[in-house]
């Protein structure tokens, strides 16, 4: 299997054109382990690039490259919004995560990461697991998001859920001028690692929940949990979640759930949840704004996991992470207020705020030589 084929001169220019917004793209090829991977570094202006490693049986080289370029740019914005001293990067391994994984493949990948000399930190993403990176870390120190037994911060869904809760409080504040969640109704899609924790915390605050999942065990567990709180839970069918008469929709399952079909069902006043890539297209963010539905940009409200992973490089500390996660509340309020003031969608407001932060920090960091700073080499 080989996706990387010889190309004409024109193709090479097209490739450079495609990566014109990116600092560096590395193509990794190790025939002895069948590793074919792409590492895309969008920006190291705010610090070394950080971003997960996705493994997927891409149908073409272009699909893999497009994914790496798009996701790494998204990481630059996510890092700026979370105010972590990292830039955006992402890596993709071309292969089937069910069939093509070997310890040697991840060790080879670790060597490529190491060859970048600290310009890129990576860890798990779709199709890769912590175990894969236990192999990769034998070859490089530039792995983030490790299990606690390896000195990492552990389960990132804990700070992610915490961040979502702060985002929900900010959203309630904007909608109702209060943060008493017992007076607010929520429709939660997905009771997995993040959604279940969010649901538990909302129940503890006495909230009214409508929830759905395709997994009956989680549904039974949340019903049982509700009995020990002042909150209440109603189970709804997966297809009916979009039309629930709830104040806030909390998507915590999968992406693309804000689209032409679901938009017409929404009676929600706001949408604020952990799922990645909630808007099927950017235009759907504008449509939400037109309909007066407040939208919490996903890359901000779900950044608790990134905050933990980036903080890990100073030495794992759960309390410090949860403290930093609180800042998501202020960032969300900022985005909502800016959108209201400028009559723009919250997505546009969020992007503008991130771009401004990057421009400001770029000036501040003009003398900042991160690659030689000992602060990035704590685990060495
Ligand atoms: P998860 O796999 O643990 O949970 C997803 C849940 O959604 C599962 O319980 C699953 O049964 C349920 N689900 C699947 N299809 C469904 C459907 N049709 N209707 C209702 N429920 C359905 O994943 P997670 O770690 O909780 O992440 C949830 C979302 O948040 C994902 O989009 C993820 O990318 C995003 N996210 C997670 C983290 C993290 O730290 N875990 C960080 C940032 C973003």
Automatic annotation (TrEMBL):
Give GO terms for biological process: amino acid metabolic process
Q: Which domain of life is it from?
A: Bacteria
**InterPro entries membership:** Aminoacid_DH-like_N_sf (IPR046346), Glu/Leu/Phe/Val/Trp_DH (IPR006095), Glu/Leu/Phe/Val/Trp_DH_C (IPR006096), Glu/Leu/Phe/Val/Trp_DH_dimer (IPR006097), Glu/Leu/Phe/Val_DH_AS (IPR033524), Glu/Phe/Leu/Val/Trp_DH_bac/arc (IPR016211), NAD(P)-bd_dom_sf (IPR036291)
PANTHER family on file: LEUCINE DEHYDROGENASE (PTHR42722), VALINE DEHYDROGENASE (PTHR42722:SF1)
For this entry, the protein name equals Phenylalanine dehydrogenase
Does the entry feature the keyword NAD, yes or no? yes
Keyword vocabulary terms for this entry: NAD, Nucleotide-binding, Oxidoreductase
The source organism is: Tenuibacillus multivorans
Which residues make up the binding site for NAD(+)?
Answer: 190-195
Residue ranges of every copy of the Glutamate/phenylalanine/leucine/valine/L-tryptophan dehydrogenase C-terminal domain listed in the record? 157-365
Similarity section: Belongs to the Glu/Leu/Phe/Val dehydrogenases family.
Catalytic residue list: 90
Record GO terms (molecular function): nucleotide binding; oxidoreductase activity, acting on the CH-NH2 group of donors, NAD or NADP as acceptor
